[in-house]
Amino acid sequence: MKLRSLRSPALAALLAFAAGSVARADEGMWLYSAPPRDQIKKKYGFDLTDAWLDHLRLSSVRFNSGGSGSFVSGDGLVITNHHVGADDLQKLSDEKNNYLRDGFYAKTPADEKKCVDLELNVLQTIEDVTLRVNSAIPVGATGEAAVLARRKITAEIEKESLAKTGLRSDVVTLYQGGAYHLYRFKKYTDIRLVFAPEQGVAFFGGDPDNFEFPRYNLDVCFFRVYENGRPVKTAHYLTWSANGAKEGELSFVSGHPGTTRRLLTVPELEYIRDNQFPYQLALLKRREVLLSNWGNRDAENARRAKDELFGIQNTRKARDGAIAALHDPEFFGAKIAAEAAFKKHLADRADGTDALAAFARIADAQKAIAKIATRQRLLEGLVAFNADSYGLARHLLRAGDERPKPNGERLKEYSDARRESFEQQLFSDKPIYTDLEIVTLADSLTYLVEQLGVGDAVVKAVLAGKSPRARAAELITTTKVRDVAFRKKLYEGGTATVAAAKDPLIEVARAVDTEARALRKTLESADETKQQAQAIIGKARFALQGAGNYPDATFTLRLSYGPVSGYEENGLKIPAHTTYAGLYERSAKQGNKGDFELPARWLQKKSALNLATPFNFVSTADIIGGNSGSPSVNRAGEFIGIIFDGNLASLSGDFGYEDKQARALSVDSAGILEALRKVYEVPALVNELVNGKR
């Protein structure tokens, strides 16, 4: 579907921002350590106090599986999206219980189901460590030497912080290398499922309605956080608004946007447009066809493939929208013009020479990345080995090699500060299905051959004289890495034990590991060059425009804001809210079939509902993937809704902000209560939300 062109007001703003000016309108995914107090005060007359921000920050939750959420009771109850919780619903399901499709409700605390390997994080503190990180890089160091020095100081800071505070400690790169902040998180790993609706209403409209509006989705899921065997007692949770969102009111979004690319240079954006995104789209569409066909063979296949297929379809549509922005001459032309204008500013300044040279270094580094892109994706990026079993095999191989090294010299995923989270994933007993693993590995090995050719040395080593399908079946059926006890034995035994096991899949990982590591080094060296150059450019921006901008998204906590507001599209006014009446009308118009078929209980309970109840709403808040599950709150800090999507126009948000038609979509808090009360009839859960305790 074609993404609309951005018209002149948005283009002018985009041009100004890209050139380094402060953010406009309601733009921005703001750091909690540098919130937009002045902008909000000036435009809305609202004071962002420290107490207000601290409460919202400590009520916000990061789902390490990829998404956001928030505490909504003092007894550890957390709300997120159904599609964020889908991975856990899938892992808890089996042939007899399909919680992803049919939903779940724990009638008593004893019925709450413990998730297999879910980790939740709550941001506690932020510390600027830029000076310490940069001071550790030897003057003039570039490439691998700089990468190793930065890796060493990062690991040192994280380990030191973990030992001192006991908190998960991550050094986060901001402004593409212009700043480094230490984020400390309270980590929770005992997470239990409380409630999920059926997927038919959580994702009503399916792929056809995805990224569209009006929408009618009950995209919610509730979990409870435990610690030491008991529900967490927290003073910081969001009070539930029974009235929901009001048209025109200022709303705030507190969540963890994953990745944006708004500060990239033109050569970097050209690479994404011409290389990275087209490659990703082709691969996503290939995998979508593969899983769709396999899932259509029988119901159990469909259940096993459902969550991954949903993720692929969602990403594919998002990429389609994002690349459309880069193909829009008006949109991309604004990026080119903005960079040219900024460079002209630099050329007119005596101190602009270094920044101009930095642009050139980024362009050269991007060319170096392009040269290795295909092999790097296949071997280090695991595109050629699309199977959970292979990922486990490589981790066992690399952990054995990395752990004996000094902490600061290891690949970052094996550092001491990340050890607990890494081991939780490595020893997860999540279900891994042999038949599905064979299908996905066979297809990705076929892709390896297609990309590199049958005569390539790596292809020969991996296939060992067999066809991709035969080799995949052999490797998946003979490896032991799906046995948790086996993984623990090898991990604890180290390199010698891993080698002695002679596991066939680990040996394949070993056969490609030397080249894969070399490709990673090349990529990291090029990225280091770009980071150093971006730091210089960032300083030049600050010198010209002053502080007041936000960095690109990094899957860390950010604050966005904007009014609840409808918009105009194709000459039609789109209201800010949808209602339950619209849900039933949409279903009936589509014959209540396929993606528009409502679960049986929703048909039975229609007469009990107040059909005028607000269901979904839109706002101008600046969001991106990763914000899914973020709470929407009002000035009082009350929970008025939960972000679950953006509309089609918002998909350009990866590269720039637009507020004429782009909108963030939320499920209204009033609509959630109406469903819980009258459709699901779960008074205990309703009372906990209304009263803040169970």
Characterize the structure shown.
With 694 residues, the chain is α+β, with helices and mostly antiparallel strands. It contains 25 helices and 21 strands. The strands form 3 sheets. Strands 2, 3, 4, 5, 6, 7, 8, 9, 10, 11 and 12 form an 11-stranded antiparallel sheet that branches. An 8-stranded antiparallel sheet has the order 1-14-13-19-20-21-18-17. The protein has a two-stranded antiparallel ribbon with strand order 15-16. Helix 10 (266-295) packs parallel to helix 13, helix 14 (388-402) runs parallel beside helix 19 and helix 19 crosses helix 20. The radius of gyration is 25 Å and the shape is globular. Residues 1-22 have low confidence and may be disordered.
Provide the descriptors you would attach to this structure in a database record.
694 residues, alpha+beta, 15% strand
Report the portion of residues in β strands.
Answer: 5-15%
Got a strand count? 21
Structural class: alpha+beta
Kindly state the mean pLDDT as a whole number?
Answer: 94
Describe the global form.
globular
Spans where pLDDT lies below 50 across 5 or more residues: 1-22
Largest sheet, strands/sense/barrel: 11 strands, antiparallel
End-to-end distance: 46 Å
Cα Rg: 25 Å
Per DSSP, the total helix count is 25
Question: What is the helical fraction, as a range of percent?
Answer: 40-55%
